From TrEMBL:
Lineage: Bacteria, Bacillati, Actinomycetota, Actinomycetes, Micromonosporales
Top-level taxonomic group: Bacteria
Organism: Micromonospora vinacea
Pfam family of the protein (one): DUF397
Protein name: DUF397 domain-containing protein
Ranges for region Disordered: 1-22
Domain DUF397: from-to ranges: 6-59
Length: 62
């Protein structure tokens, strides 16, 4: 998987929690990638933009 140009970011709400965060790259066409900030070379979760938007909207209501 080519992640050249991926811009990874953490939530602005993540705070200072010893690096226990997820990072999201949503700037690549057609996919949103999610990784563990403590294991940046580990496995990724990959979503379609529509599935990611649905997840974020649901998370906001919880």
């Amino acid at each position: 998987m080519d992640l050249t140009g991926a811009r990874w970011r953490k939530s602005t709400r993540s705070g200072n929690n010893s690096g226990a965060c997820v990072e999201v790259a949503d700037n690549l066409p057609g996919r949103v990638h999610v990784r563990d900030s403590k294991d940046r070379d580990g496995d990724l979760l990959t979503f379609t933009p529509a599935a990611w938007r649905a997840f974020v909207e649901l998370a906001r209501t919880r």
